[in-house]
Amino acid sequence: MDGEAEAWSPDGNLLYVYSWRDGHLCIWAQRLHPLTKRPIGEPFAVFHSHSTRLSLSNQIEKILGLGGNRLIFSMGEHTGNIWMAEWKAQ
């Protein structure tokens, strides 16, 4: 997995990472063997972030955290305005 940030599940049997695996920066998880911590099976998507406006990739610093039964991460929002004007000849 190509994680930019990572977090371990409380029991240590899942590793959560940011990954570009599907062409977008999303959160993926990998199951791990309880004793050896070697990967079991394929990574699976936990949270897809495919929007341009509200995205995980809009963040400078990428942090993952776990609290109780929640995965904590930040997302950035990009917005903009386009203004049009009409020039008057003098």
Number of continuous helical runs: 0
Mean pLDDT: 86
What is the topology, as strand order, of the major beta sheet?
1-2-3-4
Run of helices and strands: EEEEEEEE
The major sheet is characterized as: 4 strands, antiparallel
β-sheet strand percentage:
35-45%
Distance between the first and last residues' Cα: 63 Å
User: By helix and strand content, what is the structural category?
Assistant: mainly beta
The Rg value, from CA coordinates, equals 19 Å
What's the number of extended β-strand segments?
A: 8
Low-confidence stretches: none
Global geometry: elongated
What is the number of independent domains?
1
- Helical amount: under 10%
Short description:
With 90 residues, this protein is mostly beta strands. Helix content is 0%, strand content 39%. The protein contains no helices and eight strands.
Give your account of this protein's structure.
The chain has 90 residues and is mainly beta. The protein has one domain (6-77). The chain has no helices and 8 strands. The chain has strands at 6-8, 14-19, 26-32, 39-47, 54-55, 65-67, 70-72, 76-77. The protein has a 4-stranded antiparallel beta sheet, with no helix packed on it. The chain has a two-stranded antiparallel sheet with strand order 5-8. Strand 1 and strand 2 form a beta hairpin. The chain is elongated, with a radius of gyration of 19 Å. The mean pLDDT is 86.
Label this structure with key terms.
two-stranded antiparallel sheet, mainly beta, single chain, 90 residues
